[in-house]
Backbone:
């Protein structure tokens, strides 16, 4: 007799099927049809699909069925659902309450805002699903180490929401370590892990991040929901007026018809916001629900204030509200609730805070100032729009360029923010996004986990700690010798974070007690670091450091060039002096590492004559100007050009390789600094720069430790300040630089020929 395979829907339990009928779903989504049999079969699974494709249900419908099918269901939680944000947990609780109630499964919230009484009740009779953040899970293990077996021995699976937000990060390493610690404490060889994500550039790396060392055994599920289509536009703006080039371009969103207003008028550049840009934001966003990603918190406040005043001037109720991490929880939630539940038009002007899946309903459009720094982020933001059937996602990118004015810096003439925006859109259209970062050493997070394990166990032997955290856990790049060096560093007279008892157990030291007694201990990530910029004891302002900098480098601040003399991490002070070298480029200050593939696409765009229908007239003219400048500088055939009293190097590589080459030149006594996609070498001649690059291309590259030594701190991770110079150099070389690529990068610079 033929054995017919049951459909995904038929594999679900009766209560779950009944809930689906009550929702009046016409059918299961593609990702659900694929994920249900995979999860029912058991094992680790990564589920990837576009935003709002039904990934949460794809995981929980079969997991609830597994709970109902289990005959040995004992005491303890059945499912851990780990989310990166408390707001996401609150959203998911409301979303899943009816489903769990219909399946007779208890649903628990667990984070810092949940009452101690509610947590105590859940601990006393643990059952069902617990929605929790990594920090709350860490606190539970550290404070209630003796209860772990009781709480988690019956655990059927762990769901990790927004997996991409954890991969390659300190929090990701912490979470992976916590899950291993739970498995070991409960005597389980493994507990199923289900990762959910909307943006994964390399599913293999994601699988490895979900189950370190055993990624090949993770099943991959990719949903193919086509969605409702995308309408997009890139609009250009000038700091100094309209371009002279009258070349026509598309004046509206691709596929949209509304009349374009005449783009003329005076430019007001208050706080760097051209008047025409402010007018267009008001015109496009007013009257609907939207997200406007403005960049930094300062820029969010500037744009929200400008748009609010425009509402006042037009005698209209305000529709524009800031949303960023420095605002109170109540203010952020007010904006989220207004977007989700209030019929009044609302635009949230945000940093990255609304990038993840906080429930704000379906917004009409997404707007973004500048290119951002990753295609993955762009895809995530775009997924917030176009969720309702028949409504396409709408994206507008607003790019400010300084314009091709007399005496402009060569980098300004290339209009690189616009070129990067086009490159990111093209890569997104091609279905590409950045792969997850490969595992680094993460010694700062390992310090945290050593302290956490000591607190959880009451004391542990060094060999057992290494086995738990490194051999079995996620810190598999740390061998026994390096682990011993790290323990000695933690226990040094300067640090006193740990000590060893007479019988060999690791214990918390004097300074470690001060650190671990605070609620601030549980997060492993460092808070945003801003440094004061000082010139001859005069404070010029504060500078947010999103990437390491080196003494001798040049920074652009307040429209001037400053050479870094010293960096004091403890006082958070950067001492600078004015430096010459010609007019500095316009610098938008966008943070983050740009991937090699995006920068390579930028060069292809400058080499080609392809027209992009989604550009408005100004952006089309700026693209033409950039291509003319690219040809004028001869950058199709060479990558080094003369500028002022030095040279500009365009390697066309990502941020990590660009910074590595800049530091290598610093180590060879050049005054080199990297901005955007170029390295500015001052007070030198072309022959000297070319000779140095030629040597590197032939294999004569600076020693890796020498290159790393040029990179002054700031300490980027929470406990970097504890590390010895040798350990800090290891972290720098593994995670922040790419010294092995130096020879190839130098060779490509020297052998650059036209490829277009």
Residues:
């Amino acid at each position: 007799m033929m054995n017919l395979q049951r459909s995904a829907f038929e594999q679900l339990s009766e209560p779950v099927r009944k809930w689906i009928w009550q929702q009046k779903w016409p059918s299961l989504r593609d990702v659900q049809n694929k994920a249900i049999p995979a999860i029912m079969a058991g094992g680790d699974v990564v589920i990837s699909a576009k935003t709002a494709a039904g990934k949460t249900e794809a995981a929980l419908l079969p997991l609830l069925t597994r709970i109902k099918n289990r005959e040995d269901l004992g005491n303890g939680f059945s499912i851990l659902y780990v989310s990166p944000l408390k707001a996401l947990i609150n959203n998911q609780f409301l979303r899943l309450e009816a489903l769990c109630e219909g399946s007779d499964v208890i649903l628990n919230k667990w984070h810092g805002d949940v009452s101690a009484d509610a947590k105590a009740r859940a601990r006393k009779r643990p059952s069902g699903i617990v929605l929790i953040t990594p920090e709350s899970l860490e606190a539970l293990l550290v404070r209630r180490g003796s209860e772990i077996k009781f709480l988690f021995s019956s655990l059927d699976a762990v769901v990790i929401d927004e997996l991409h937000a954890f991969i390659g990060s300190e929090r990701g390493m912490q979470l992976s370590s916590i899950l291993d610690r739970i498995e070991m404490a409960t005597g389980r060889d493994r507990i199923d892990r289900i990762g959910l994500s909307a943006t994964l550039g390399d599913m293999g790396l994601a699988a490895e991040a979900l189950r370190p060392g055993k990624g090949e055994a993770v099943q991959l599920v990719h949903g193919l929901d086509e969605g409702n289509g995308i309408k997009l536009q890139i609009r250009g703006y000038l700091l100094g007026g309209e371009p002279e080039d009258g070349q026509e371009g598309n004046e509206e969103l691709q596929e949209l018809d509304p009349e374009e207003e005449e783009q003329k008028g005076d430019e007001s550049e208050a706080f760097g916001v051209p008047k025409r840009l402010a007018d267009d934001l008001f015109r496009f966003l007013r009257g609907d629900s939207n997200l406007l990603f403005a960049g930094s918190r300062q820029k969010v406040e500037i744009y929200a204030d400008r748009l609010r005043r425009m509402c006042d001037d037009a005698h209209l109720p305000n529709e524009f509200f800031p949303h960023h991490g420095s605002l109170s929880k109540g203010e952020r939630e007010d904006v989220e609730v207004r977007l989700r539940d209030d019929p009044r038009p609302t635009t949230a002007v945000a940093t990255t805070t609304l990038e993840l899946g906080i429930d704000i309903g379906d917004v009409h459009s997404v707007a973004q100032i500048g290119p951002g720094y990753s295609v993955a982020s762009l895809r995530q933001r775009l997924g917030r729009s176009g969720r309702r059937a028949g409504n396409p996602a709408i994206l507008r990118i607003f790019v400010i360029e300084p314009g091709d004015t007399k005496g402009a810096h060569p980098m300004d003439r290339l209009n690189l923010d616009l070129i990067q925006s086009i490159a990111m859109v093209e890569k997104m259209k091609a279905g590409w996004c950045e792969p997850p970062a490969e595992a680094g050493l993460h010694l700062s997070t390992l310090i945290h986990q050593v302290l956490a394990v000591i607190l959880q166990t009451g004391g542990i032997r060094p060999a057992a700690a290494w086995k738990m955290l490194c051999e079995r856990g996620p810190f598999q790049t740390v061998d026994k010798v390096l682990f011993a060096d790290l323990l000695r560093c933690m226990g040094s007279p300067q640090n006193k974070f740990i000590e060893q008892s007479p019988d060999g157990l690791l214990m918390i030291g004097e300074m470690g007690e001060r650190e671990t007694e605070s609620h601030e201990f549980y997060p492993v990530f460092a808070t945003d670091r801003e440094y004061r910029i000082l010139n001859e004891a005069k404070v010029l302002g504060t500078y947010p450091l999103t990437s390491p900098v080196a003494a001798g480098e040049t920074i652009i601040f307040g429209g001037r060039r400053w050479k870094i003399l010293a960096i004091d991490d403890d006082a958070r002070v950067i001492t600078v002096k004015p430096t010459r070298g010609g007019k500095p480029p316009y610098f938008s200050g966008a943070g983050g590492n740009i991937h090699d593939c995006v920068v390579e696409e930028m060069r292809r765009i400058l080499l080609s004559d392809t027209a992009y229908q989604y550009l408005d007239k100004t952006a089309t003219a700026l693209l033409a100007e950039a291509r003319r400048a690219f040809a004028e500088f001869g950058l199709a055939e060479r990558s080094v050009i003369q500028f002022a009293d030095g040279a500009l190097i365009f390697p066309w590589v990502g941020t990590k390789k660009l910074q590595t080459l800049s530091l290598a030149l610093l180590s060879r006594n050049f005054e080199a600094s990297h901005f955007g996609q170029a390295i500015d070498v001052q007070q030198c001649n072309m022959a000297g720069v070319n000779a140095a690059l030629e040597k590197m291309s032939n294999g004569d590259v600076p020693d890796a430790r020498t290159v790393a030594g040029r990179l002054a701190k700031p300490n980027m991770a929470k406990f970097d300040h504890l590390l010895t110079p040798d350990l800090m150099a290891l972290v720098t070389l593994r995670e922040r630089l790419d010294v092995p690529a130096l020879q190839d990068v130098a060779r490509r610079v020297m052998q650059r020929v036209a490829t277009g």
